[in-house]
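Good morning C.,

I know you're traveling, so I'll keep this short. The sequence:
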Amino acid sequence: MNLRSRHIQTMKIMRHADGFTLIELLTVIGIFSLLIALLSPALKQARDKSKQINCMNNLRQLGIAFQAYANESNGFLPPTRDDPGVGLWWTQYISPYFGKPTTQSFGKDYMRCPSQTGTYWTYGVNHFSVFSYSPAYYGGVNYSKRLDCVPASAMMVMDCDKPYPLVMVPFQWTLNADWDGDGVMDTNAAGGWIYNCASFRHSRGAVMLFGDNHVAWSGILSWINNENNLWYTNYSRP
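The tokens, ready to paste straight into the viewer:
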């Protein structure tokens, strides 16, 4: 073999070592595409779980703020709102305990649930069973519960997704309409909000703060079926 032939052979070997053929390149792309398809659901699940943990931490801190508020308010929780149509919401009453002014709302202006992407409040109180309007609305009677009288199994706050930071539990607003047409009664026909303003955005469930300040995830059927009396149907006024 002469010098020229050796040079050409060497160049062919180098080209083969340094590059990919079209078939090899397509094979690599195919493998990467398959890996991405296999990993995407797991990555989404991990992101969703991280958001749920963040949401749970928000409600744990809210539980501490409720305790501080009750300590300065003769044991009572804040009102849902001053009046049905005007005044401060509970989300504003609790803001000073987070170092925020009462012009800002918990779960809306700060400490939002990261899984809710709209502009509504992201958390709602158990309206009427645990929280109610201010004493001024009821002639001086405080209809919000004393924190130490709320049972451990009673839901105090949960995910919501409507223009009001409250949830009407179904024993007060009966689920007698099928909003989404799936055959399950999920809405009060007179109220007009699916699940009475509750939201189940965490794997078909919601994060809830309970009467003893523990935070847990609860599935949609547990809420609909009032598991462990989480609606607090046997409440009484102080």
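Safe travels,
E.
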